[in-house]
Each structure stands twice: as structure tokens, then as C-alpha cells.
Description:
Helix content is 28%, strand content 25%. The protein contains 11 helices and 26 strands.
Amino acid sequence: MAIKVTMPRLSDTMTEGTVAAWLKKVGDKVSEGDILAEIETDKATMEFESFNEGTLLHIGIQAGETAPVDSLLAIIGNEGEDISALLAGGDAPAAEAPKADAPAAEAKTETAAPAKAAAELPKGVVVVTMPRLSDTMTEGTVASWLKKVGDTVAEGDILAEIETDKATMEFESFNAGTLLHIGIQEGSTAPVDSLLAIIGPAGTDISGIADNYTGGGAATASAPAAEETKAAPAAEKAPQAAAETSNGRVLASPLAKKIASDKGIQLSQVKGTGENGRIVKSDIENFTPSAQAQTAASAPAAKQEASAPAAPKVFVPAGEVYTEEIKNSQMRKIIAKRLSESLFTAPHYNLVIEVSMDEAMQARTAINSVPDTKVSFNDMVIKACALALKKHPKINSQWKDDAITINHHVNIGVAVAVEDGLVVPVLKFTDAMSLSQIGGSVRDLAGRAKNKKLGPQEMEGSTFTVSNLGMFGITEFNSIINQPNSAILSVGAIVEKPVVKNGQIVVGNTMMLSLACDHRTIDGATGAQFLQTLKQYIESPVTMLA
């Protein structure tokens, strides 16, 4: 029996989606778990898997088209099955029989034409607005422009770096042309949907467009032009690698991505053997990194670091008062706002425990003796937290005015210090990850966080947070809870000192752990029991295998 597949809601703020690319065509066999299409949401471009199997009988939204959530995306059924009844169901005007596709397209063009005329946008001109790069973002600050007025812009080029409430992120262009106008200067802040830039053919007269721009009409009118501009380069530009789409995204199965992340392999270096050059599991398992490529990649970075001049020190005349003001970044403003809200709304209390690290140090040495394996003490703490949270789910909770939400899945956020402040990338389903998987994921997320390469979806959904300052020599500290979590663990440095064992004073290695709890959700005894379980796992790592 044929099944309708609708445009999925891939984020909590998504109201419509754009089909970036179809990986299946009408008539292809579809298995459960196959990637049907790549869909651009309001946050990222994501792979959409099929939950059904059969034959792809109809595509309701073509590549490059945008449609609301729940619109008819495709129909899957038995080969040769009559789907005329489903197409005539009236769920979505776009979901017509193939023979009616042409009139539908004509109708869309006719509808768009008056809107375009009303907005008075010259042909090929696209208005680019301040994007919503996270679910809580209401305004953004342009940290820097990587293009200037008059520069040629290709699809996928980085236009600017934008500071959101969570991170500083690179903003890519979805259109090709010439940068004709910049609406928000470097360092300026503007609400979401404000005029960011105008892109179009070189020499186009855009006088009056910026002054008369309104968020609704111009944006709507620019959509057809954006599709035309986007489609043209895609057709002209040959793929640079078998595993890349026209916008530079690497096609890979979710399993291949996971294995690559665990092994620290860059997908861009792997040649895919799957359909449309897609990278599959066997490609990752058989991949051998090229030493020459690694050397070539590291050389420019080293050269750039060597050539970068050191920042000049400010000269302060002796005996004179001298002050300097540094403008608060968007990230710093949000950190101040969120942590103030957390500290002044959640009644914090801290529980401190000292754990012996002697066995953990021996276990880490044994684990890291395995080739291509690197595990840190922080990875061991994260794994121990994940297992302890499964035994004490009240710690893994969230406070709401009418109820307490107990999370039975474990997503641990790992606090990472970056130049502008602090970000918390999230390890999804941490309890199901091995130590080496946790280590690989943390290194990958931390590295991309410092290079401003994290996506918003990688910093959402945490249920518990770990903050470690041990590498800076801090032996003990208390953190502010990362809401909506109910607790955060502060991890100190490992200290060698005299300890008492079996009535004898011996040299031992210990580490201090401090658990900050929200008293609305976690009572003192509950937090103490969690720390006892955590201590057991860390002091005897073999118990994590039980």
C-alpha cells in the first residue's frame, strides 16, 4: 500500500523546508534507513531518512523548492501501484499527478510575478536577511565581513561571521552573483530578518531597495530569484569530488559519519563508492590517510601561525590612570544573561567529593597503549557520569513550573572555552558511547568549537553538563548550572599528595569533584548518592564495563 511522506519538522522552530537535493529518483527502490533527500531547515541542511521501504512513486517537492512542514514530499509504495487517489486527496496543491506538474509550475510563476513586481526587485537580485542561526536567537552581530561590496560571490562562499546568542558562526551564501550592498556593518547588531546584504548581477541599480526594504514583501519576492540564481550555478558547476553535492556538502551515510568521527577521519578526504558518490561504511573502514595530504594541510596552518604578528601591548604611562573598553560580544551578553538567570532563579547548592585516581591512571595507560586510541581523564569522567545518570535519573532532570521532567536519555554537554567566551557542545546518547568514541567526539567538537565550525544543533539538547578546569591547575571550583539542566559537575586537577590507605600514609593521586544542584529538583541526599556512584565508577574503571 502506498504511503505519503510529508515534509518533516526537523527542528522545533522549523515551519518550512527546502529540498536541497534528492538522492533517489522516481522508480528507484527505497529501503528503510535510506537517505531520500537533503532538506534545508532554518538551522542546517540535514539528511532525511526513509522510514518505509518500496518504490519511490512520486516526488511532490522538487530540488530547490520550499514548502511548509507537512506538505506532500513523496509517495512510496509498490512498483506500478495506482496513486491517483492519493494525489487527488487535496493535502497539498503541489501533490498533483506528473502530467499536471507543468501547469502547477506555471501557476507558481504567475503568482510570484506580481509579488516580485510589487517589491520592484530587478531581475536576479536577492535580498539576504539576518538569519536565525539558533532556536533562541532574536538578533545577531556581524563579527566580520569576508566579502566586500563589488566582490563576486559563489554559492557556498562565506559571506560573514555572525555572533549569535550561542556562538560565532560562519554564514554561507545560498546565491551567486556580486555583493551589491551591505546592510549591517561589522560590529553592528540587528534583529533577525533585518537587511543583511543584497546580491545580484554586477552593475545592477539597487537604489531605493535598501531604504524601502520591509522584512515580509522583499524576502518573499526574492525567493523565485534565489531559486533561479541557485539553480544556474548548480547546473554549470561540475562536482569537485564524487562525495560532494553542488553546495560542497559531503554525502555520507549516518553510520559512515559516526565511524569517521570515532576514528578522527575527515570525510572530505574519503572517496565514496555508494550511490551518487555517497560515502558508506566500507569506504571509512578501508580508508588510509595520506601522509602527504596531512603534511600539505598542516604546512599552510603552521606558516600562517608563524607569520601572524603578535598583538602590540598597550603602553601605560607610569602614574597615570588608563582604562580600556571592550565592546561586549553577542556571546558575552547571552552568557551574562543566561548565567544570571540561572544563578538568581535556581537555588544552587554544591556537594564536594574527593576521589582516588590511582586505578584510573593505570587503566588510562593500558587503554592508550592500544594503537590509534587516545582517552583522557575527562573522557573517563564523562563516561562515569553517563552511567551514574542512568542509575540516578532525578539528576538528569529539568524544572518546569507545573512538573519536573525526568530525562531517561543521557545527553552530556561539555563546556569548552573559546576566544569569545564559553560554548557547550553536546554528546548525544553518551551512555551508549565507548570511551574511545567519547574521546574522539569531544576532540572533534572542541576543535570545531574553537574554529567556529559548530552547528546550532550540536549545542542543543543537553541534560547534564561537565566543566573541567583541571588542565589549568585548578584543584576545586563551583560552576553555575547550565539551564535547563538541573546539575553541573566541576572537575579539578589530579593532585599527588599523602593519603591514608589501610592505616598507612602513602603517596596517592586524588581529584576533587563538585556537583552544583538545583534544589527545586534535586535534594541533598539524591545528589550525594549520585556522587557516591560516580566515585565508584571513577575509582574502579572496570566497573564501567559491568
